[in-house]
Design a protein that fits this description.
alpha+beta; Elongation Factor Tu (Ef-tu), domain 3; 2 domains; 7 helices
Length: 166
């Protein structure tokens, strides 16, 4: 591992359906005070790309994805070695050309799409491109953009307007 990776061992625990490991407080401080920290690394040598989430008092926890647990054949209670570093690469999804064109032709839909979280945009793109034919992709893109155009302003926009008038 390179020097900029933080290596630690931790026990996997379960919160509802998700398995986590706690990041030690000293490593949490080094990774930054953000509410969510994008990271890359490994769990027992298996590649990982995830986001650290706060667990309180400035410390973070890391979700151990199901595909990693299945490869390692581990679950809650197992102790694993984790190596992580802050991920500086963009998390933006690669948009298919048909979606780029459709959003360019609809500024309203484009603004709504850009106001979504990066994670939601990735999920939408994953759904749109999970087809076998270009015709199906174009139909999905057309329906998606039409829905965005019909969609009412977001709740956040409504809250901001209410807050200003008070």
């Amino acid at each position: 591992m390179r020097d900029d990776f933080h290596v630690f061992s931790a026990r996997i625990y379960k919160v509802w359906l998700v398995r986590f490991v706690d990041v030690p407080p000293n490593i949490s401080k080094q990774l930054g005070p953000d509410s969510a920290v994008p990271v890359v690394g490994t769990v027992e040598g298996v590649p990982l790309r995830s986001t650290l989430v706060p667990r309180g008092n400035g410390a973070y926890r890391l979700a151990i994805h199901g595909d990693i647990r299945k490869k390692l054949r581990v679950d809650a209670g197992a102790v694993v070695e984790v190596a992580v570093r802050r991920d500086e690469d963009s998390r933006e999804p690669q948009l298919p050309p048909s979606l780029v064109l459709a959003l360019r032709n609809s500024p309203n839909a484009q603004q709504k799409f850009r106001s979504m979280t990066t994670a939601l945009r990735r999920q939408i793109v994953r759904y749109l491109v999970s087809v076998k034919s270009q015709a199906t992709l174009e139909r999905r893109v057309l329906k998606f953009v039409e829905r965005l155009e019909r969609q009412a302003p977001s709740r956040m926009a409504c809250r901001k307007k209410k807050g200003k008038s008070r």
